[in-house]
Structure formats: C-alpha cells, structure tokens
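User: My collaborator sent over this chain with a note saying "see what the structure looks like." That's all I know about it. Can you take a look?
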Amino acid sequence: MDLIEIDGSYGEGGGQILRSAIAVSAITGRGVIIRNIRKNRPRPGLGVQHIKSIEMAGRMTGASIEGLAPGSTSITFIPGDIRGGEYSLDLGTAGSISLVLQSVAPIAAFAPSAVTFHVTGGTDVRWSPTVDYFRNVTLHALRSFGLKGELNIESRGFFPVGWGRVTAVIEPSRLRGVAAESPEPPSVRGVSSSSRLPPHVVRRQAEAAQKYLNSLGIEVSGIALDARNDRSTGSSITLFSGFLGGSALGERGLPAEKVGIEAATILANEIESGAAVDPFLCDQLITFMALAEGASVITTGSVTSHAVTNMWVMEQMTNRRFTVEKDRVVYIRSV
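Assistant: Without extra context I'll predict from the sequence alone. Here is the result:
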C-alpha cells in the first residue's frame, strides 16, 4: 500500500496536523506517515493527549499503528474499516475533551452505525474550545454539513484536576457542502458555568456579559446558569450567535464580571467583523469542507495559522483545493 507522507513541522506544526491527517486517513482508508511531529515546539513529538486521540481513532478502525509513544516524532497509521459502537476514553487530569471530539467526530460520521463516545477529562480548559462551545457552535455548524450529533455534559472538569465527563453520539451522516457567507442575525445565547463555587459567580459572569453586549446594541436572548458541585473547581462562560462564539475561563482573584466581559468582547468583535464563521470554528470546518460532497464557501474575520496548515493537509490527502480571498471579510472556498 502506498502511504501518504505528511511533514508534521509544516506551518504551525502542532497537533492540528495530527488530528486532521489521522481523521482523513481513517475515512479514506489510505495509510499515512507523519514525520517531524511538533518538531519546532518546546517539547517536540507526541504528547499524552495526542496519543490518546490517535489510540481512539485506531480502535474505531482496527488500525495498525507504529511510533505511538511519548516524544515520538514519527508515526505510521494504517486504518481498517470504520466501526460503530461505544468507545470510552479517560484523558487523565484536564486534557481537553473538545480536542478529542474534534479529532474523532469526522471519523464517526462515516461509520456504518452510531458511535457513542464517553470521554473523561477537561471540559473547560485553556488553549482549547470549551465543551459548551463545541456543543453550541461546532455541532451547530456541523449539522449544516449534514452531521447528526448530540452531546451531553455529565460533569464539569476544570484545570488542573479535570474529572469532567461528556457523552457524545454521532449518527452515520452524509456530508454535503455548505455556503456560510452571511452571518445569522445576531441573537446571543450562552452558558455561564461553575463548580464548587458560590452560585453568585455564574450569575455575575452572565449579568456582566449581557450588560456589555446590550451597551453595544447586541440583543441577548438568554444565558443559562449552570452552577454545579462536581469534583473540580472553576468557572467559565461561553457565548454564541450562529457560527460565532466567545469563551472565557475564571481564575483565582479574577472578578466574575471581568470573565463575563472577556467572553462578551470576543463575541462582539466577531459579530462586528461581518463574517459568518469565527476563526476558531473555521479551523475545525476545513476538514469537513474537504470531506463533504460538493463545494463549500465560508467567510471568516481572519485566517489563523491552524486554518492555513489544515488546508495544506487536506490538499495533500484529498482531491479538494482551497482558495482564500480577502475582501471586507475572508472568503474560503473548497472546490
């Protein structure tokens, strides 16, 4: 079998290359060799979370995998057929549940029967989307491609303890191209959450966010309050409107009002951009634009290095080609 070779140091050279390349390999049935994994990062090679995501993809496809070890800078992944069923994964401490789901959701869409994921780890952690973002922005956007999926948050997991638990179900789906050029009329909703903190924290986060957005003339339909007493301690707020989102995490000593305003500021800037898709969601949609039947076009406020890298990976592994055009917003097309 001819294997596709991917340079893991290309572009931003991070975990996005791994997530995208493994997913497309699993779906197309073509084996892949990824070399120079995270070559230019302070700690090159595979991290524990990368390994666990790849292991999950391997279990879903009965794959043959070589080089799957901490610090490994080269991996070979040769998939078998995708299988439905139930899969459990414990990331340990506060590894990002959202990034794992981002890795395996495309694979699950092509399974012959439903796939249920039970993932334990971090629901609200730095450097990754919150699970509220994944449920209300990512899944909302993926449904426009035809993906059938639901997510339930059973418990919250904040850094550094984790212990959050999420169940996600992805049904077999036929993906089709999308046209997301104009944003939905802004009507903001959100979730203000906490664990092991006084109930007033979620209320103050939500009230500050709503007050800030209202001051800009942006309507807020409602922000749900989710105060829990799970095993970890922390707070977060995620705001969303259509395919746009903004999140912020609480910190010790940081007033709840500042957390709410931080998330509101991020979302307000995205609404003001006039784009349909926020830059972080854009990163995630590139893979689906490559795998869907038919052409797609989306607009975003800016193109991140993750998105540029992901487009390059998709062009190496599929027949899709991407174009990027800058006007008042950035148009990204797959053909």
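A starting point for your reply to your collaborator: The first strand starts at residue 4 and ends at 7.
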